[in-house]
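Render this sequence as a predicted structure.
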Amino acid sequence: MNCSIPDTTIGSASPPRALLYGITALLLLALTAGPSAAETPVYQAEPSGEFLKTWLLCGPFPVVEISDYESDLVHLPGFETDFLADHGGEASPRIEEGQRETFEGGSATWFRYTSEADVLSLDEAVTQEPYVAAYAYCEIESPRDQICVLGLGTNDGGRLWLNGETIWERTEGRGHVVDDDLIAVRLVEGRNTLLAKIEERGGSWALSVRLVPFDGALLVERGPLFGFDHRDDGTAALRLLHPASVADGICRPEARLEILSAGEPEEVAWRGHWNNEPSMPLPVGHNGYGEYVLRLKATLEDGFEWGAELPFDAGERLEHVLFDGGRTDYVIVVGEDASESERWAAEDLQGWLREIGGAEFPIRSDLEEAPKHQIVVGFNRRAKALLGDGVDPPDTLDQSFTYRNVGPAIVIWGGKQAGTMYGVSTFLERELGCRWYSPSASVAPKRSRYAFRYLRHGESPDIRVRNVYYFEAFDPVWAARQKINGAMAKRQQPGGVELYWGVHTFFGFIPPSEFFADHPEYFSLIDGKRTYVEAQLCLSNPDVLAITTERLRRVMRENPDYLIYSVSHMDWKGHCQCDKCQDIAQREESQAGPLIWFVNQVAEQVEAEFPDKFVGTLAYIDTQKPCKTLRPRHNVVIRLCTSGCRCHHFYECPENAEFLECLETWASIAPHLYIWDYIVNFANYMTPYPNLRVLQPNIQAFRDNHAIGVMEQAASQGRGTEFAELRAYTLAKLLWNPDCDADEVMDDFVRGYYGRAGQYIQEYLDFLHSRITPEAHMRVDIKPSDAMFGDGFVRKAEAIFDQAERVADDEEILHRVETARLTIMNLKCLRQPYEARRDGTLARYRAIAERERVTHYAEYGRYVSSGFDKQMATTE
């Protein structure tokens, strides 16, 4: 950095000069061949990153102390006085060393000062008195027009002008930090003037300035480039948060803009480009209040690619009162042609609003006179009138939904079958705090008043069919509210369910009792002998194909409500070893070869009669490996069963590599992939099972591999199994939105379901999952003797549950805590049966299990006839 360094005076206005300093300054001037001592400090070769240390200073100027709480919102009184008015004013000053600036009651003279440090101490250079202001001035010589970054630090607030343009202003008191503010500035070719005015509010008083080359990444890291102004007509304007002089050069060639409706990120309200002006009106807000997100993409001056999403609002903010003091002006409107689920949703909405606010919301038809205050449920006549021609009616089967306000009116709509219903449930959850933690545990926060300004939210599922196979999730009303729509058997559920008919169906179509005696050739050839014991069908036999196809047609005619009909092998290996079957298996390098070859033919033959249905089959055990060349038909669904380690997600554990390869390969060749996921310990539903942390990444992997459905198989035979309510609730949220905040979902459940005891339930869950290490692997049959469940684990878990029971809010919460504790009690009984009998754990376990009607703790049968009772009996 080259700067003409003038003779510099240390101290306040016009003090006597030290002889030694004068000699030093003369020598420096001689060595640098700079201008004469009377010239203004001029910096060259900028931006260099070096601090500007030599200035012309003038001060102190008086300002007035204020001490109220709003003092940081304005400059100190007197700061706004233009003390340079006699010499061009602050915006265009004419400044010379020795020049005197007068003010009422005094004057100050410009003097040169060079700081030895990067930070200019105004306390040393001007005065240590508080509640004053001072100016600092220098000039910058630029070889060309250029944009760079000015780094500024001050103590306290002030104002900064570059070439007469205000480029920075702060009112509040603050401590000095180097480069506290980074400002994009334009240097013009030739001489540029820089004037600072800094106020002193007490304490230290300082200034630091330097110029650095433009760095877009650094600039946007430190703060946004843009903000918003709100205009009197209700519209908003995009405002550059840097000096107006850089507006036409900070981005190249122009920034791309999208305005999205907040809550509906897929709805683009406007697209365009930044006009390269300091302020740009945005085309929203004319038709009422709205909340938006501005998505901005730009290439900055140095080539840095930058993008941001900036929230803003526009339009007049009006408050609409839904209910107040047990009264409401609103009615609920449903269409005359509303579906059963829409009518159910309207009644559900009515009931929960009554529960929350104590107000009665009448339900009216859309044929009646339109009131001003209304909640419209479904895309009906009233919804069309409110939403206008820009919104199209959704498909009946569309599961997505939207709710928004149009003035005081609220419209909630989606597909007639379930979408509208899902929208009502989400409105109650998001806007009013309703929670349906389990079929027997609901929360409806009491409120005396609810008002809104803006409502706009929409969602759609990432996975079409969502089946949570917990006993608790079979409750049809709870499942409907949680957007669970998959099932293996019929149930009367609001909005209906997507049914999957059957599994392991080979012997259902061709029963050995009916066919084996006369047609053993229909069954597997194993070790040279036809058999049906632990065997399958001979899939290359044309009669097997004909019988299976005809009987499947009969099933589809008699059970028209199902979406997918299974043609799948039995729950074991035993595939046919005849030459024809094995030729296909060897060619396809998998037992899936004969199966897909067979199912494709069945699917082709039923398609004409059932064009909207699917034929499903299993990729399971030795059919899990995909075919080498065969591809499933477009109406075939591959139901892939998971395998591998259950405590590490698929992408981080080597034990999952084989399954992950199968998943990705099937996803690449199958038009429809349906996942059958195992998420419990089938050998003992009560055993602690630390896999909560992998549920989300695994479901995301299913979604990313284009699964149309996911079935989370768990403890389906009865209630009371290990954290079944928490798991069912979390899985429902994840299957609808795999990218939701899973930790927040579980935290919300634990707080809401367990009350004050929730803190200890969370402590236990964290403790349990801390047992998982990279070396600890877990499958679906983990034993109580596993190393992760040592006696120390049991003791600490018991202590945590003791604390949870002590703080339980009431008897109902205590019962929930005790039910959760069954998992530790069961573990202790199996690990330490004599101690469990001696200290009462076994007796208490049995009493709680009976009270909670726990009937199963393993897949294979009731706990009263299981190995648990047998083992306990041996200790009696």
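Summary. The first strand starts at residue 2 and ends at 4. The mean pLDDT is 92.
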